[in-house]
Design a protein that fits this description.
Elements: E1 3-7, E2 13-18, E3 33-36, E4 39-43, E5 52-58, H1 59-62, E6 70-75, E7 80-84, E8 90-95, E9 100-107, E10 115-120
Parallel strand pairs: 5-10
Antiparallel strand pairs: 1-5, 2-4, 2-7, 3-4, 6-9, 7-8, 9-10
Length: 121
């Protein structure tokens, strides 16, 4: 089921990982998306500039028909994917059936997107 939230995340970064946590990637200034096998981080609109709309759902529910900015596998041993903030605040979550889940991410802008869609499966 598709879920959305509007938020101004601290440090303008969102974390996508298993409910049991993951290894956070090294975040560098020259990128907007970072990942390890167990955690994906994506930069979004600067918190001072406004809210970012974040959507989580099955890929077939939210695919916008454009190439995703990320298409890969995420380790999900707890069988639940969570979108959270740098402080660990859970924003959205969705159960998954496998211990590895395909994740696709779309963003409406190359720099500081204010719309981020996370599709599972």
């Amino acid at each position: 089921m598709r879920q959305s939230i509007r938020i101004r995340p601290l440090n303008s970064i969102l974390f996508i990982e298993d409910v049991e946590g993951g290894q956070v990637p090294e975040i560098t200034r020259n990128e907007r998306l970072w990942f390890t096998p167990s955690c994906i981080c994506i930069g979004c609109l600067m918190e001072q500039d406004g809210e970012t709309e974040v959507t989580l759902g099955a890929s077939n529910e939210i695919d916008i028909g454009a190439p995703p900015v990320f298409d890969g596998q995420l380790e999900t041993p707890g069988r639940e994917v969570v979108v959270s903030t740098v402080e660990g605040k859970k924003l959205l979550c969705m159960p998954v059936s496998e211990i590895r889940t395909r994740v696709r991410i779309w963003a409406n802008r190359a720099i500081e997107p204010d719309r981020v869609l996370v599709g599972l499966g």
